[in-house]
TrEMBL record:
<dbReference type="InterPro" id="IPR038765">
    <property type="entry name" value="Papain-like_cys_pep_sf"/>
</dbReference>
<dbReference type="Pfam" id="PF20770">
    <property type="entry name" value="PAN2_N"/>
</dbReference>
<protein>
    <recommendedName>
        <fullName>PAN2-PAN3 deadenylation complex catalytic subunit PAN2</fullName>
        <ecNumber>3.1.13.4</ecNumber>
    </recommendedName>
</protein>
<dbReference type="GO" id="GO:0003676">
    <property type="term" value="F:nucleic acid binding"/>
</dbReference>
<dbReference type="InterPro" id="IPR012337">
    <property type="entry name" value="RNaseH-like_sf"/>
</dbReference>
<keyword id="KW-0507">mRNA processing</keyword>
<dbReference type="GO" id="GO:0031251">
    <property type="term" value="C:PAN complex"/>
</dbReference>
<dbReference type="InterPro" id="IPR015943">
    <property type="entry name" value="WD40/YVTN_repeat-like_dom_sf"/>
</dbReference>
<dbReference type="GO" id="GO:0000289">
    <property type="term" value="P:nuclear-transcribed mRNA poly(A) tail shortening"/>
</dbReference>
<feature type="region of interest" description="Disordered">
    <location>
        <begin position="394"/>
        <end position="432"/>
    </location>
</feature>
<keyword id="KW-0269">Exonuclease</keyword>
<dbReference type="InterPro" id="IPR028889">
    <property type="entry name" value="USP"/>
</dbReference>
<dbReference type="InterPro" id="IPR050785">
    <property type="entry name" value="PAN2-PAN3_catalytic_subunit"/>
</dbReference>
<dbReference type="InterPro" id="IPR013520">
    <property type="entry name" value="Ribonucl_H"/>
</dbReference>
<feature type="binding site">
    <location>
        <position position="993"/>
    </location>
    <ligand>
        <name>a divalent metal cation</name>
    </ligand>
</feature>
<dbReference type="InterPro" id="IPR036322">
    <property type="entry name" value="WD40_repeat_dom_sf"/>
</dbReference>
<dbReference type="GO" id="GO:0046872">
    <property type="term" value="F:metal ion binding"/>
</dbReference>
Length: 1136
């Protein structure tokens, strides 16, 4: 009995009817295996191939047991018993007031004629199999959950008691209390009775680790059989009277002899779920398991095994002979059937596959053809003069290329004109899923570019590229090649918690990448599918000298030879090292449960990504040097190309073998020996001491060997495993094995740092098309807790701001020469149990709102332009604050003049935050600013936009500025804190302000007056200056422009909106504003206010406190667009 092996696994491929298997039984008369699932469906499979034979819906509730007789199949559920023939036709159904909660059934003394059904109900029912009626009711003293029959009927009760009944009189002959809890299963053969169940301990039910054995003749217990994993199912061998099969829910089963418990054979069912039912064939040659994942697993102990020694043939459908068809000249061709074919027919041409063939050539005038003279092969003819001057043949031109979206303003114009918008609504429309062996690149892998209209980036339709709930990252930012890795780090949940905790601390480093990463992650969390940009993170990254020295910056004008694969691998190593240094402190939280208390000095990044490696260098003089280092990234080491034999060998190596030799390796090199006092040949060894929770791997892209290795496999998960197991034994020998998707859940690593099971969570690949600039994409497996739909694949493709759900087969397909994996991320499957993030600092440092921080050397603390918040004024959720910001230009706009004279924007000017002001929006100090910060310039300013921003040269210089000057991080941190506290921002044109600040505000926390005072079917967005003139009788932005004044004005306008809304006249006032705007060409008339247009309006409004009046001339950068388009009726952008 030591040669059992699994031969077949099958499941119902129809997801609408598939459900966990709840009952299973072999047919003792035919070569059939019957299963019942929790949806009440009964299915039969033929032979060892488990070919589907019949399937039908027998019950509305889960099937609890199946009995097979020579006349048909009897199935039982909680409220009914049904008998059908083997084709599924119903013979009878029993369902009445006596069938309330049935659990089990068995034959009586008359096999195939009577059955006894019982359950958690008062009566057991004796049912006549031929007629389907209850012929007798037997009172039950306990709840019966399982029954078996040999010489007596053995009944297992829910109380743990086993009763033995006479099958003729149904009187109880013996009782035995086998378990203190419930009975899981019983089986009997000859004079032996075996039971398994649970016991009650401290109020909980614990599975007994023993199978109890009884002699039915004397009811004396025999020696029990141990089963440590918890026995739940028992099956006695039909031919070997002392052999028993014991199985657990996890799929482990033993085959042992009752008389010799030392002779045990262990097996494991390859299941990703838990086992619900088992059965053994009458021949004893087949064993079947049914699990909760709807899979049926068939095991055999020999080749050509049979269910029964002698089986009846199964009934097959009648083969209908095709009718004789007589054809004539008038017969339809459809009378003849289609022949068998293996390739798709031309008739299945998809309706969406159309090709532009062009118009037919115009007909040439006969006069031209009659007068034409041929010289060589060219024809010449005089012009007949019957065509109008400059007349050309009309032809259609496709305005938008395939895969390019229309601008939002263009779509809006089409909707207003009543035209239907043609073209796809998404980049993924009409795009079929990538075949597992396809080498053709789908269009959604192409490099995506942002197109700019005269209305700026807000006119670009990002939704065309992303229909998911996950945010993409924009391009057209220096070093935006990092987007793919930033997305991978975002979907590392523990790192996300670490960075969120870090931004709540009082970090003083100006260009801290951990802070910027935390700010970026907060944006991606709140985005809900909207596009984001990593401009602040990439700006801080570009200021780090080490990154420049390592060559991590993207060239200004990349070409087809730009090595993005090398850049992203070097950036992967750099960012983890940098985060480790920035998060390291004297009192690091202990996140790794397995980390010894004496090693709590390890940083949080070291605990998450760090692999402890012992470096041993041994000289020929036997001098040995040992040191312990931490490695954050594993570089895959392939054989050198110069060694052709080794190169061929590496191509046949498995991924796990290359990974093992890359982590634990031994090389010969020349190194300095202190004993020899010279450079001598030494043997260097790398020995891993611990395994990280998250394993980062650089694939060694850039050499020819990896390219061939990835592409010599069939794309069916053959070379790159989805799951791997790593183990470091007591001798520091590393073992790496590939795991199947089912086996991984059954290996218990117990949170050890030397035993780990990893699952692939992300792949970064370089996409390169011939003669085009390469780019990077990320394949990310979204955690289950963040999936937008459990019915979809968890894998998503992040191609900058293009996001698409893809299949697992597409992720592991590397057949195309255009895709090359460069970075892999594996995560431990037990990382949630391994890491404890409860010790992370959760308290947010709010003191930054109460401090007057300035890095200006000439900052005067006596002259206060703001009234700082006090701890008593700390904002609460819903607190109203008014905000406005000013900007300066760091680069000029890049444009090109087309051949038709039109100007096209290639890249808009890059703006940077220069000043931000925040005012109280309610309370006793309403209108008083508590933030008015100028932002120190960290990059050269090409244009201060003084006419529009009020910022002058020197205002942003710490050596000359007289204002409150702070680094960008301080100002950003204040705004981020206000949002986290739940403040609601009021302002005018905040959408563009927030974009340049690089902060994403949830819609429920922003009130934009440019949207409030706007009629949806009109393109005009009203300026703040005109609204102040019309609603408040104030002339603003005349001699001086001030962000405090703009924020205060927006607050007053919002208060007026609330007043109009409460009085029920807001719609009328809004129409009057548009009417008045047309009359005055949207320009306020100096010295005259339209008070007559607002009934009951007052010409007196709260002004700014005298102590806060300033003489700075400031205008928001949005005024640029407003003044340039005030005479245009089709202004689309949101202006102030």
């Amino acid at each position: 009995m030591d040669n059992w092996y699994e031969v077949r696994t099958t499941c119902d491929t129809n997801i609408n009817v598939s459900a966990p298997i709840s009952a299973i039984a072999f047919d003792p008369y035919q070569e059939l295996l019957w299963t019942g699932n929790e949806k009440g469906r009964v299915t039969s499979h033929f032979g060892s191939g488990l070919h589907r034979y019949t399937s039908f819906r027998a019950h509305l509730n889960p099937v609890r047991q199946i009995l097979v007789s020579d006349k048909g199949v009897i199935s039982l559920c909680s409220d009914s018993v049904k008998m059908t023939n083997r084709r599924g036709l119903i013979k009878w159904t029993l369902s009445n007031e006596d069938t309330t909660d049935l659990h089990c059934m068995t034959y009586t003394t008359m096999p195939n004629s009577e059955i006894l059904a019982a359950g958690k109900q008062h009566n057991m029912l004796v049912i006549n199999v031929a007629r389907g009626i209850v012929v007798k009711k037997v009172e039950s003293e306990s709840d019966i959950v399982v029954m078996r029959k040999s010489r007596l009927i053995c009944c297992g009760a829910n109380s743990g008691e086993v009763t033995l009944m006479d099958p003729r009189t149904f009187k109880v002959e013996h009782r035995v209390q086998a378990h203190t809890g419930t009975i899981s299963d019983i089986d009997t053969i000859g004079n032996l009775l075996l039971t398994c169940g649970s016991s009650a301990r401290h109020g909980n039910l614990i599975i007994d680790p023993l199978v109890k054995v009884y002699d039915i003749r004397t009811m004396r217990p025999l020696v029990p059989m141990p089963f440590p994993t918890g026995p739940c199912f028992l099956k006695m061998h039909p031919k070997l009277s002392t052999t028993v099969f014991i199985a657990s829910r996890s799929g482990q089963f033993h085959v042992c002899d009752i008389g010799n418990t030392s002779d045990i054979h262990f097996y494991q069912v390859n299941t990703s779920s838990y086992v619900n039912a088992i059965d053994l064939s009458a021949s004893g040659e087949m064993l079947a398991f049914g699990d909760a994942a709807s899979f049926v697993h068939l095991w055999e102990d020999r080749k050509e095994a049979k269910i029964n020694a002698y089986s009846n043939p199964i009934e097959l459908p009648t083969i209908q002979t095709p009718p004789n068809i007589t054809t004539s000249e008038r017969s339809s061709l459809s009378l003849i059937g289609m022949p068998y074919y293996k390739e798709p027919l031309l008739s299945v041409w998809p309706s969406n596959m159309r090709f532009e063939v062009g118009n037919p050539p115009p007909k040439i005038d006969p006069d031209i053809l009659n007068n034409m003279k041929m010289i060589d092969f060219v024809g010449y003819s005089p012009n007949p003069g019957n065509m109008k001057r400059n007349q050309v043949v009309r032809y259609s031109r496709k305005k938008h290329k395939d895969g390019t979206p229309k601008f939002r303003s263009e779509k809006e114009r089409e909707l207003q004109s009543g035209k239907s918008s043609r073209g796809p609504s998404s980049l993924f429309d009409n795009e079929a899923e990538l075949d597992a062996t396809s080498t053709k690149m789908p269009k959604y892998y192409k490099r995506v570019e942002i197109q700019y209209s005269r209305f700026g980036v807000d006119d670009f339709d990002f939704e065309f590229y992303n229909k998911s709930r996950y945010a993409g990252l924009e391009t057209h930012i220096a070093n935006s090649y990092c987007n793919s890795l930033l997305q991978v780090l975002f979907f590392t949940p523990v790192l996300r918690l670490i960075t969120r905790s870090h931004i709540g601390t009082a970090c003083t480093k100006e260009n801290c990448l951990c802070c910027e990463l935390g700010f970026l992650f907060r944006m991606l969390e709140n985005a809900r599918g909207r596009n984001c940009q990593a401009s602040n993170f990439l700006r801080a990254f570009s200021t780090i000298p080490q990154a420049l020295a390592l060559g991590l910056f993207e060239p200004d004008e990349p070409d087809e030879n730009t090595p993005y694969s090398m850049l992203i691998q070097n950036f992967n190593r750099f960012i983890l090292e940098q985060l480790h240094q920035e998060c390291n402190s004297n009192n690091n939280p202990r996140l790794l449960k397995s980390l010894p208390l004496e090693q709590t000095s390890h940083s949080m990044i070291q605990q998450l990504f760090g692999m402890q490696v012992a470096s041993i260098s041994k000289c020929q003089c036997e001098t040995q040097t040992d040191r312990l280092t931490t490695s954050f990234v594993v570089d895959l080491q392939f054989s050198s190309k110069s060694h052709k034999g080794k190169e061929r060998e590496s191509k046949t190596k498995a991924f796990v073998d290359i990974l093992r030799t890359s982590i634990q390796r031994e090389i010969q090199q020349r190194a300095w020996c202190n004993n020899c006092q010279q450079y001598v040949p030494t043997i260097a060894k790398k020995i891993p001491k611990s395994l990280p929770p998250v394993l980062s791997i650089n694939c060694g892209a850039g050499t020819s060997v990896p390219l061939e290795i990835w592409r010599t496999h069939d794309g069916q998960n053959a070379w790159l495993p989805e799951r791997v197991s790593m183990d470091i034994d007591d001798d520091d020998i590393l073992t790496v094995k590939e795991l199947s998707s089912d086996a991984i859940v059954d290996i218990n690593t117990s949170g050890s740092s030397k035993h780990a099971n990893y699952e692939l969570m992300a792949i970064i690949s370089q996409v390169r098309v011939e003669k085009e600039i390469p780019h990077l994409v990320a394949f990310i497996k979204v955690p289950k807790s963040e999936l937008e739909s459990t019915s979809k694949s968890p894998w998503y493709l992040f191609n900058d701001f293009s996001v698409k759900n893809i299949t697992e087969q597409e992720v592991f397909n590397f057949q195309g020469v255009w895709k090359m994996p460069v970075v892999l991320y594996y995560s431990r499957v037990d990382i949630s149990d391994l890491m404890d993030t409860s010790d992370l600092p959760s308290e947010i440092d709010k003191s930054i709102l109460f401090k007057d921080i300035s890095i200006s050397k000439h900052h005067s603390t006596n002259k206060k332009s703001v009234d700082l918040l006090t701890p008593e004024e700390l904002p609460q959720p819903g607190t109203l604050v008014a905000i406005d910001a000013e900007f300066v230009a760091l680069s000029q706009e890049e444009t090109e003049i087309r051949s038709d004279g039109t100007k096209s924007v290639i890249r808009p000017s890059r703006l940077s935050l220069a000043r931000v002001s925040v005012l109280r929006g309610e309370g006793a100090k309403e209108g008083f600013p508590f933030i008015d910060d100028y932002i120190a310039a960290s990059e050269p300013v090409v244009d201060y936009l003084t006419e529009y921003s009020g910022i002058k040269a020197g205002d942003l210089d710490p050596g000359s500025s007289k204002h409150t000057l702070v680094p960008l991080k301080i100002a950003y941190k204040k705004l981020r804190l206000l949002l986290d506290l739940g403040c609601v921002l009021v302002g005018h044109g905040l959408k563009k302000d927030n974009r340049i600040i690089n902060i994403l505000v949830p819609p429920e926390q922003v009130i934009d007056t440019v949207d409030i005072f706007h009629i949806k079917n009109r393109q005009r967005k009203i300026s703040l200056r005109f609204l102040a003139w019309y609603l408040l009788n104030q002339n603003i932005q005349t001699d001086t422009h001030d962000s405090i004044e703009d924020a205060h004005t927006a607050l007053l306008i919002y208060k007026k909106y609330l007043q109009f809304k409460s009085e029920g006249k807001f719609e009328k006032v809004l129409e009057d504003i548009y009417s008045e705007g047309h009359k005055h060409n949207w320009k306020p008339t100096h010295g005259m206010f339209p008070t007559s247009h607002i009934e009951g309006s007052s010409s007196s409004y709260p002004a700014l406190p005298e102590m806060l009046e300033t003489n700075t001339t400031e205008i928001s950068s949005e005024i640029i667009e407003n003044q340039n388009s005030e005479t245009s009726e089709t202004n689309f952008s949101q202006n102030k």
